[in-house]
Amino acid sequence: MLRGKIILIGVSGGIAAYKIADLVSRLKKLEAEVHVVMTRAATEFITPLTLAVLSQNPVAVEMFEDTTRPDIQHIELAQKADLVLIAPATANVIGKIAHGIADDLLTTMVMASTTKVALAPSMNVHMYENPILQENLNRLRSLGYQVLEPGAGFLACGDTGRGRLPEPEELVDHIIKSVKAEKDFQGVRVLVTAGGTREPIDPIRYISNRSTGKMGYAIAEAAAERGASVVLVSAPAQLTPPPGVEVIRVTSAGDMHQAVMQRFNECDVVIKAAAVADYRPRQIADQKIKKMEGGLKIELERTPDILFECGQRKQHQVLVGFAAETENVEEYAKKKIGQKNLDMIVANDVSQDGAGFGTETNIVTIFYPGGKKVEMPRMSKLDVAFGVLDEVGKILSVKRKEPQ
Ligand SMILES: Cc1cc2nc3c(=O)[nH]c(=O)nc-3n(C[C@H](O)[C@H](O)[C@H](O)COP(=O)(O)O)c2cc1C
């Protein structure tokens, strides 16, 4: 659910620092990329090793560990991150940030950050109620920092009152809300196909391809995150469907054809990211074909051309095709737009490093009927999915202005 998001956690020296181990492990389970920076005081409460293991990234504490190379990487990360969360935020760290002091890695990183910064104050109730602290928090709020409300109750110091660090699940909720996408697809019905179809030869064997479904699943995830109601027609894939998405599982091109045609009319956007077999065995043997002397000929026939049929039936729908090619990508992609009556095609050269089947990243170019093209750099498949939806959004808004 947080796949593709970079969360930078700053840990300062409060007793609640131990809760950050749980927070980091929850964020990892949601597939976020997590980086941790700690103050020196924080390392008295929880070891950098624990957080490095749980985040699967090195934890930075010192700015001048290697005196020839200050830790620039974390400063860069503070600009790239989707969110910087300081948790727990001590009275000291809050005071420093509010007054522009940058005398260690964490505070320097916050000073250099161009991204959203949230602070989760956690301290003794009297420290929390101290007017200096409250004034510092107000100053930070007025400067656009997010300040999380601490919980009330029994505190580690023995006092009772406000000052508790919110529980890790509450911190995760805040992070999700903070980094979640704009709901610009609210009310839009999106059908996505994904995975590689299987065309049976006999009860044991089939013809398939190398598609893993990652690109289609990423599109379904991005569309759902942006508020669309999503139907994912999935050929076999070893992936967990994104939450909130209706999944129709199919096996062969014939099954996929049936599922897509059944739902086509009720959709606003159809994105065909599946790798559908073009041919299938003409006969499916009832029993396992036994090994024999000599070769074996299997006669193949064409499968239904789902994309072509969608193009013929298209009314108000935005129809998006995918083209995975190993040569002449642009030529084939442009030809396919006209043949299939598409609104756009997402083409990739699967022979390139970092593109195509099974990889975490993709490098795509989007072609339009008029000849316009949009090239995208190598990105995670989820980021490609968001980019594709940005383009779909533009077509949708143009279509909505046209008389039907
Ligand atoms: C046992 C113990 C617990 C502490 N807990 C907190 C705390 O919860 N919140 C806080 O603001 N300071 C707490 N402090 C004080 C900070 O550790 C101290 O102000 C330190 O200078 C903070 O450094 P930092 O902001 O660079 O991490 C605690 C100190 C000790 C010894």
- Structural class, by secondary structure, is alpha/beta
Helix content: 25-40%
Shape: elongated
What is the CA–CA distance across the termini? 36 Å
Arrangement of strands in the largest sheet: 12-11-8-13-16-17-19-20
Output the CATH topology of the largest domain: Rossmann fold
By DSSP (H or I, 4+ residues per run), the number of helices equals 13
Question: Strand fraction band?
Answer: 15-25%
Main β-sheet: number of strands, strand sense, barrel status? 8 strands, mixed
Rg calculated over all Cα atoms: 26 Å
The CATH superfamily of the largest domain turns out to be: CoaB-like
- Unreliable stretches (pLDDT < 50, length at least 5) are none
Name the ligand types: flavin mononucleotide
Number of strands: 21
In the residues, how many domains can be counted? 2
Main CATH class of the largest domain: Alpha Beta
The average pLDDT score comes to 91
> Based on the structure given, which CATH architecture of the largest domain is correct?
3-Layer(aba) Sandwich
> Oligomeric state of the chains?
single chain
